[in-house]
Amino acid sequence: MKLPFRLNGGTVPYGTYAAIAVAAFAAAFAAAFAVESAASSAFGGGKQSAFDALNRSRPLAALGSEQQCARYSGLPARWRDDPQAGMVHLHGGEFVFGSKLGYEDERPAGDGKTRVAGFWIDQTDVTNAQFAAFVKATGYISDAERQGGAVVFHTPTREEMNARDLAWWSWVKGAAWNHPRGPGSTLDGRMNQPVTLVTQADAFAYAHWLGRDLPTEAEWEYAGKAGRDGADLDTAPRDAHGKPSANYWQGVFPVLDTAEDGHAGLSPVGCYAANDFRLYDMIGNAWQWTRDVYAGPHQSHTNGDTSAVAPLGHRHDTPMVIKGGSFLCSRDYCVRYRAASREQQEADLPASHIGFRTVLRDAS
């Protein structure tokens, strides 16, 4: 199969690119494992967990399996009655911000040691059900609805791949958070999935409705790493039986997703085990907005620049940091199913692989 992809201004066969990517990351991660010990659990090794006593007796989400996520309504217990409904509390602490094993823009500054203050954070991505409740209560109109469309992923045909670059992305008129495939599509059966096709402004609007905020990049990564610091944070997540423990791409991107993880495309929230801070889907499923501008060393959009298919008027907004990877991240393209991973996304560009979660910071 010879599928052309652009890399650093040139064109290479897809198979060649995939082989280079796999070899490079395999070598880096193998070297890391040779010199680093396995990660310490946040609940073991003498380390105190940031998941603290404020979570005792709280109605945490009963998720973590296919059966549980399928039954979940998308609305956490005591929704709208409890200011921290659906959230867990993490006390402040120090962690290594970034990774020496991934892309250039992930490298730690100095020793990487960074301290964050305590905060509450959503256990799951904000769901379609939660965002729908916000829209019903406020009459909010999303940016995609105002712009008349959004960037949507689809599995391209061979003909599409040969016809244009980034053939898996399309600007779809009428696509929005409540019409994820465009006009005529609905959220039927998807209320427990992450809300996507929302811009950073949409995410801020929802968060502010609840008196919350979007996480900083450091807060997000602190929560995503969950007290761990070993080399296995930079490998594709798999459980003790070797099965993928997050929703990311297995197979040949973008033409074949084998769905070894149980899902092709978005999954409901909470289908996989939580991390050691009781947070679900910090890796994979949908990228998550942060409040931070993308700064420091820049890495190209290796997941395929969504702005390339957007209308000209929406290509130049400020690039913001998104975290966590998505169902599109694979071992041969993207490789961002990791807590330290980061990507840039134009603040005003809604896309079908990006959602968010909110935080509520402790009073200083």
TrEMBL record:
Segments crossing the lipid bilayer: none
Taxonomy, superkingdom: Bacteria
Keywords: Signal
Every Sulfatase-modifying factor enzyme-like domain range: 85-359
Key word Chloroplast present: no
GO molecular function: formylglycine-generating oxidase activity
Region forming the signal peptide: 1-34
UniProt key word DNA repair: no
PANTHER family: FORMYLGLYCINE-GENERATING ENZYME, SULFATASE MODIFYING FACTOR 1, 2
Name used for this protein in its record: Formylglycine-generating enzyme family protein
Native species: Paraburkholderia antibiotica
Lineage of the organism: Bacteria, Pseudomonadati, Pseudomonadota, Betaproteobacteria, Burkholderiales
